[in-house]
């Protein structure tokens, strides 16, 4: 096989990775480049609706027989199996995303085969190896292994350069989360316009309330380990306070399946659902199109998620970050979000303040999205096409961010 015939392999497994690599997959396919998808996640059935939404059929799947839950065991199994797959597939390049154990194992397996690695969403740092663990170290180690570093912002690019990554390997391209969110929202709105059902029944009351009663919507999500226990309880209590104080407020909270999260949320808020007559929706995690619809129609998002910070900025939905830190400081610098942590009184005061000052809220909605303009996948494909010997469809461009 010539380099041009060997596929560019995308190796990912979790929900955010699939969402963020789907635009790259779509763009490589649109250009007629050979591309293969390796699913490394544990629960393929959970990923299936996403694959259907994006029209992706993974060519390969890593099925792991784990005998214990340790990271070392997971890494070893992934490394061995991915080595076998890459050996059979002979990729011209392997693309990995972000910071998971499978990101690092995919990069290692590609490195052992002498295959160049492209790291998408490179350069995010908290500068604390324990927070998030092991993700922060996975980010650094993947940077050591990668050939192409696709940094979402100039800040992320600067982080890489400070670590000695050669300048010519760093491409500031924006974040593919924006590509996915903009294209996905357009599709959701088109489908709704045709009267097709995109939203689950759980959101019906909410839709009616937004349309006819003038409710303002807040989307809430929380899943991070650091917020388990007290943090989640505080967030839930602040949501109850806000709903009681603002009769025109509605909240949708897709509750993460982990009992460390769901038990606390339902204990605090479950009894309120009936009392609030449709203004509080607690539901299982939403399919991606429904989540996009929620953000698009929300006045605010309260979240500890990374992806939702980027999607909020893309969809003009101001984001309050339920953490004490973020590896996406650009959101705050751009004025599109605020760090609020998990203190009940502080969350309530911040949301109250914003609801009472529409001009401040409007400024946040109008902030320039620091994560790009939805053309990140094109920029990534330009670089790969040029470096792998195809004539580029367009000149690679770089995005400069504040
Ligand atoms: C420890 C840590 O920091 N880990 C991070 C975490 O990333 P995250 O915080 O972005 O993850 P989530 O919030 O789970 O996912 C977000 C995506 O899911 C969509 N979504 C959400 C709720 C829902 O009901 N339905 C949906 O469709 C949503 O639109 C968005 O695109 O895991 C990644 C690898 O797993 C890591 O790389 C990343 O560092």
From TrEMBL:
Sequence ranges assigned to domain UDP-N-acetylglucosamine 2-epimerase in this UniProt record: 32-384
Keyword Oxidoreductase attributed: no
Protein name, UniProt field: UDP-N-acetylglucosamine 2-epimerase (non-hydrolyzing)
Main enzyme class: isomerase
Keywords, alphabetical: Isomerase
Family listed: Belongs to the UDP-N-acetylglucosamine 2-epimerase family.
Enzyme Commission code: 5.1.3.14
């Amino acid at each position: 096989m010539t380099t041009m015939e060997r596929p560019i392999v995308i190796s990912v497994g979790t929900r955010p990775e699939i969402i963020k690599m789907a635009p790259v997959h779509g763009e490589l396919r649109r250009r007629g480049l050979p591309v293969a998808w390796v699913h490394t996640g544990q629960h393929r059935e959970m990923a299936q609706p996403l694959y259907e939404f994006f029209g992706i059929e993974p060519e390969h799947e890593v099925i792991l027989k784990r005998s214990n839950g340790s990271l070392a065991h997971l890494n070893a199994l992934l490394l061995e199996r991915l080595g076998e797959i890459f050996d059979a597939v002979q990729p011209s390049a392997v693309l990995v995303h972000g910071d998971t154990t499978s990101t690092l194992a995919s990069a290692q397996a590609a490195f052992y085969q002498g295959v160049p690695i492209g790291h998408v969403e490179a350069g995010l740092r908290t500068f604390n190896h324990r927070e998030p663990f092991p993700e922060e170290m996975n980010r650094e180690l993947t940077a050591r292994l990668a050939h192409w570093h696709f940094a979402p912002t100039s800040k992320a690019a600067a982080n890489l350069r400070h670590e000695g990554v050669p300048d010519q390997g760093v491409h500031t391209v924006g974040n593919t989360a924006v590509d996915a969110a903009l294209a996905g929202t357009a599709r959701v709105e088109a489908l709704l316009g045709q009267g097709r059902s995109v939203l689950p029944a759980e959101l019906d009351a909410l839709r009616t309330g937004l349309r006819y009663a003038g409710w303002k919507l807040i989307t809430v999500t929380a899943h991070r380990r650091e917020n388990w226990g007290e943090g989640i309880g505080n967030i839930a209590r602040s949501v109850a306070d806000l709903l009681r104080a603002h009769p025109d407020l509605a909240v949708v909270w897709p509750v993460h399946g982990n009992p460390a999260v769901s038990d606390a949320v339902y204990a605090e808020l479950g009894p309120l659902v009936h009392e609030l007559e449709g203004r509080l929706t607690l539901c299982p995690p939403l399919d991606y199109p429904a989540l996009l619809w929620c953000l698009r129609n929300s006045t605010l998002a309260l979240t500890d998620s990374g992806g939702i910070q980027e999607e909020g900025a893309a969809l003009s939905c101001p984001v309050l970050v339920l953490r004490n830190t973020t590896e996406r400081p650009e959101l705050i610098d751009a004025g599109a979000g605020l760090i609020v942590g998990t203190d009940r009184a502080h969350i309530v005061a911040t949301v109250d303040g914003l609801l009472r000052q529409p001009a401040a809220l409007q400024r946040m909605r109008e902030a320039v999205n620091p994560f790009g303009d939805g053309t990140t996948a094109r920029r990534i494909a330009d670089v790969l096409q040029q470096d792998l010997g195809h004539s580029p469809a367009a000149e690679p461009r770089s995005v400069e961010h504040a």
